[in-house]
TrEMBL record:
SUPFAM superfamilies found in the cross-reference section: Winged helix' DNA-binding domain
Organism: Streptomyces olivoverticillatus
InterPro entries reported for this sequence: Metal_resp_DNA-bind_regulator, Tscrpt_reg_PadR_N, WH-like_DNA-bd_sf, WH_DNA-bd_sf
Record flagged with keyword DNA-binding: yes
Coiled coil: 126-167
Gene3D superfamilies noted in UniProt: Winged helix-like DNA-binding domain superfamily/Winged helix DNA-binding domain
Protein name: DNA-binding PadR family transcriptional regulator
Chain residue ranges for the region called Disordered: 185-222
Signal peptide annotation: none
Domain Transcription regulator PadR N-terminal: 12-95
Keywords: Coiled coil, DNA-binding
Top-rank taxon: Bacteria
Example GO molecular function: DNA binding
């Protein structure tokens, strides 16, 4: 299984844990709620769904009442299939949520993992956030060293592009620092809502400098 298909399976299981959906609804949620999947097509989604059904993690159910299904058949249209998470699928998704290995820190996988932090335990969230921060700090150190070696050979536009990439990584590191601080302060509940604030500071997700939080997948250095 490729890394990207594994991320897609994770996201599909996570969305279906919230509620059953048919394929069109799933693709819409993947594209709108999880921007990292904007490039995925039905050609990627439906093989993924078939695999999950074959593994026993999803079941297919008719999505229309019998009379609607008959009308759709007469009109030459197929009735929509609704996909529902099984008990085994829920257990498998929870195992994936508990995973904190290095692949959970990479750009696309981290974005998908972060989207489901509301369903993730606090200790796992902390390990993923700290791992992501460590990975970006390593990347930033390499970028600075590379820029120091090549600065004199770069034209102004290439130099600005390098600086922009570094600023993007630095911005995400600051954002991660704020998230980690909030987690340590116990400002979140397991369902992702802010815990009651007793410190005089605002609870909930820290606001990113500039008014909004960055997209974790928006990394120009990849």
């Amino acid at each position: 299984m490729s890394r990207r298909s594994g991320i897609l399976e994770f996201a599909v299981l996570g969305l279906l844990r919230e509620s059953p959906m048919h394929g069109y609804e799933l693709r819409k949620r993947l594209n709108t709620s999880l921007g990292v999947f904007r490039a995925f097509s039905y050609g990627s989604l439906y093989p993924c769904l078939k695999t999950l059904v074959a593994n026993g993690w999803l079941i297919e159910e008719p999505g229309s009442a019998p009379e609607d299904a008959r009308a759709a058949s007469l009109a030459g249209r197929r009735a929509k299939i609704v996909y529902r998470l099984t008990a085994e699928g829920k257990e498998h998704f929870e195992e994936l949520l508990a995973h904190t290995g290095p692949d959970a820190w990479e750009d696309e996988h981290f974005a998908a993992r972060f989207a489901f932090f509301g369903q993730t335990s606090r200790d796992v969230r902390m390990r993923v956030l700290e791992g992501r921060r460590s990975r970006l700090e390593e990347r930033l150190e390499k970028m600075r060293a590379s820029l120091a070696r090549t600065r004199e050979r770069l034209d102004d536009y290439t130099l600005e592009l390098q600086r922009h990439g570094m600023e993007s990584v630095e911005r995400e590191v600051r954002w991660l620092n704020e998230l980690i601080e909030s987690e340590r302060a116990g400002r979140y509940q397991r369902n992702g809502s802010a815990a009651p604030d007793t410190s005089g500071e605002a609870g909930g997700l820290p606001r990113h400098r500039g008014g909004s939080r960055p997209d974790p997948s928006d990394d120009t250095t990849k």
